[in-house]
Amino acid sequence: MSALDPEIVALVAALDEESPQARDVAAARLVALGWPAAPVLLGLPSATASGRARCSFTLVGVVYSAQSRWVRGEAPLHDLRLAGRLGDLGPELALWLRRAVTIDPALVDTEVDVDVVRATTLEVLDRLAAAAGASWEQDVFGGLRLSSPLDPPAPTAYAGPLRVRATRLACTRTTDFSRVECEACLTLAVRLERPLAPILPLNLSVLRAHDDLDTELNATVSTLEADEHDASFAVRLTGLHPEARTLKALDLRITGVFPEDVEVLTWTRPEPGARLQSALCELEVTHVEGDGLGLVARPTAEAATIPPETFGRLVDAALLGAAGSDEELAAVECWRAAGSDAVHWRARWSRLDPRRLDRLQLYVARALFVSPTALSLRGLALP
Asked: Mapping DSSP to helix (H, G, I), strand (E, B) and coil, where does residue 63 land?
């Protein structure tokens, strides 16, 4: 299915229909179609403010729902041949990736020849960039940009939607005249294929480490930097054999926590005290005034063990208000009082009066999915 599939184009156009019910049907279908709908929602701006608001709100549903299906299934492995001018390969890349592709003008005449077998998406992108003498980046929706200069080579492992790269390795040997103690320190950079975005920073643990003399090593991991897509970790390995020349294997597990089974909650004529409940949270309208509307979310018994910082990410801040056939996304402030597990939102609309809303919609995760991925770095030469 291409980015300009006629069905998707027609459904995006239907988000401008006068009937709210027709818009709901079109939005639900777009969410079900998943990632192929995203570039059309982004690239075909609606003629009306209401249509643009509905496009933005539907895009949130596409991102969350498609992500939920993606992390549950096996990430695809690709058999792919890319040969020719990079500029001519742009449309083929966009069709394969199902995302927008931008190529730096300085690279369009670069000839590449890449042939991969059973490679992950990130491995294909690395191989293509290396052949072009370029680097690559993805935007939050997975769109690809190829540009200069080339990223420096480094030991790399791939699995599923993840890549881990050893960007630095140092080794120290200390003697106290009776024995030699050796340790290695690595910096590992982890990248997650976008638009996947866990609701907590990625976590890395070392399952096993040993050198080329089969000495088992002790590992200590600390996080250097982490956001929704990328992270870097410092790994300290102690107990190296004094005569070891390589790290024979470093077996890792990277864990992400993702929202799953996302649904739309809808209040009809929201009034103070009105409540709606999902599996993980209960939401209540706290006040409705001319300058805004307040909401509070509290964890259900099923979510009682979820840390507050995680719970706050279960409810998306995209609040869509409707008055008649007019719809608008709210500007949202969010906070959590110290010592409380409840999360508060205050929503404001520029065109709509909160006291005259016919309905209010938002996305809520019904479950969390913990996704562990195993990777191994092998044969790292010790300096």
From this structure: helix
